[in-house]
Amino acid sequence: MLSALSEWFWQERLWFPEGLGWADLEDRDGRVYAKARDLWVALPIALIFLIVRQIFERAVATPLASLLGVKDTARLKASYNPTLESYYCNITKNPTQTSIASLCKQTGYSERQLQRWFRRRRNQDRPSLLKKFREASWRFTFYLLAFIAGLAALIDNAMHNEIKDLFPVSFLQTVLPSQYWYYMIELGFYSSLLFSVASDVKRKDFKEQIVHHVATILLISFSWCVNYIRAGTLIMLVHDSSDYFLESAKMFNYAGWRNACNYIFIMFAAIFIVTRLIIFPFRIIYCTWVYPVTIYEPFFGYYFFNGLLMVLQCLHIFWAVLIIRIAVRFLTNNVSEQSQQIR
């Protein structure tokens, strides 16, 4: 059964347009192509990232947080109560008025004492500023280095000359060492984020982040298997170009450097909008969605690849709305403060 499933999964009509197949990606005459088995390298790289992250957060991020003045406020702990603890962990962290009345009878607490207990207990679960800072500094470091590595891979392959060649030529594009390591490191990093999601800071867009990580891993893996190396390189580079600005803004925010945080965030918003709402859909997706059908008949891999790109684009629009709201709020508050100072 597994053999039949594997044979169905790897059939050429799913992955390639008519006239191309796995035989075209066999190494020959000194030309090296991407192989699906190469992706296994990403697993030990993901494990290495998890280990390096722990070392980085303790040896680099923690001293940096102290240097920038990141301070945690003392939090009062809720007294241990097995009845309330069980209710908090198994039912809800925010009891209704009816539940509060019932819990008051079971514990002998007053309504005010019960509300205070739940408030303190929720505060205990909130991540500390230091934890947030260390996570942001780790991501900032990776995204910055990844962006530099992506530029190096792009220059190495002279991809800036003919963007229209990004999709069709990718089928028979040889893999250079710079591309190989850029792909494996990116795949390993996003896999490590998926592995550590349970312990990372949970934000309001937690579900969207999970979808983003899964879609990114699938895109990187699929584009590698069928040798869409040029498309994949550009897509990863576009995403890395703004993320380190966001993480640096978070770092300054946790340190209390409001002005630095706000100005960096405005830079991030501008770059995000240009790369994710203009370059990504109108240049990259255009080359993967419109241009290929002038050369090949549409096939499953074509729809699958572009479907994942559209998932990412929907997430880009969702985040862009949030980013614009925050940027407008900052600019409005800044103008108001300046007006008050003039008066």
From TrEMBL:
TM spans (from-to): 39-56, 140-160, 180-198, 210-229, 263-291, 303-328
Positions of the DNA-binding region: 86-129
Gene Ontology MF terms in the entry: DNA binding; sphingosine N-acyltransferase activity
SUPFAM superfamilies cross-referenced by the UniProt entry: Homeodomain-like
Alphabetically ordered keywords of this record: DNA-binding, Endoplasmic reticulum, Homeobox, Lipid biosynthesis, Lipid metabolism, Membrane, Nucleus, Transferase, Transmembrane, Transmembrane helix
Pfam families listed in its UniProt record: Homeodomain, TRAM_LAG1_CLN8
Lineage of the species this protein comes from: Eukaryota, Metazoa, Chordata, Craniata, Vertebrata
Gene Ontology annotations for the cellular component aspect, listed alphabetically: endoplasmic reticulum membrane; nucleus
Pathway assigned in UniProt: Sphingolipid metabolism; Lipid metabolism; sphingolipid metabolism
Localisation per UniProt entry: Endoplasmic reticulum membrane; Nucleus
Residues annotated as domain TLC: 131-332
Functional summary from the UniProt entry: Sequence-specific transcription factor which is part of a developmental regulatory system that provides cells with specific positional identities on the anterior-posterior axis.
Domain Homeobox stretches: 84-128
Protein name stated in the entry: Ceramide synthase 2
Native source organism of the sequence: Collichthys lucidus
Membrane topology: Multi-pass membrane protein
Gene Ontology biological process terms from the UniProt entry: ceramide biosynthetic process
Reactions it catalyzes: sphinganine + octadecanoyl-CoA = N-(octadecanoyl)-sphinganine + CoA + H(+)
